[in-house]
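Proteins fold reproducibly. Take a sample protein:
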Amino acid sequence: HLTQLYTDINATNSGQDAVHGIATNGGRADVVFLNVDGSQSGHDGLNLAADAGGTISGLFTSGSFSQSGNAGGHVESTNGSNVGLTFNTTPMSNNGAKGFEYLVNGGSRLSATFNDGDLSNNVTNNVVGSVADAGSRAILTFNNTDASSQAANGGFVSNVGGGGALFGVWNDSNVSGTQGDGVRVTGTGAGTTIDLKFDNSLIENNQSN
């Protein structure tokens, strides 16, 4: 069981990932990042994976995972794992491919909350992910956090299947002006659940839907 506080760290210009963490085989990591700059990384700004019953709990405040070569954040919760993340004023914008990317399967859970952030201007997608298998669940909450502009393959794109569930909440958070669909979510298979709620949030001026 890892419990760690990281504060006032400059991790910019990393060759691969600025922050990379794994919890597997029932392991647990509880981490807090305060004022950690993980921008301009060669691959991902943040790369986290929980597998085989692993648990990751993370709080990120006043940092950055922007301008990386691939994704601002890449998170996996697989095979009975649980990941809970909160990002306060920690943007993931202007990355080479994706802003925030997630993968959930095998009855796992992911909860990610973005407060006063920015997930815009990423080349391929601003937010993209998948939820698969019965019992798998992703809960994504965006508070005053836009996922707008660029995103040739869509601003918010997710595939949900095999009895998985996706819950998305947008408060004062826009998905507008992208080069693809603003929001595109596809559900397949019995028992699959998709629940999206938008409050004072705009989906407009996207080049597709």
Remarks:
- The chain has a mean pLDDT of 98.
- The chain has no helices and 15 strands.
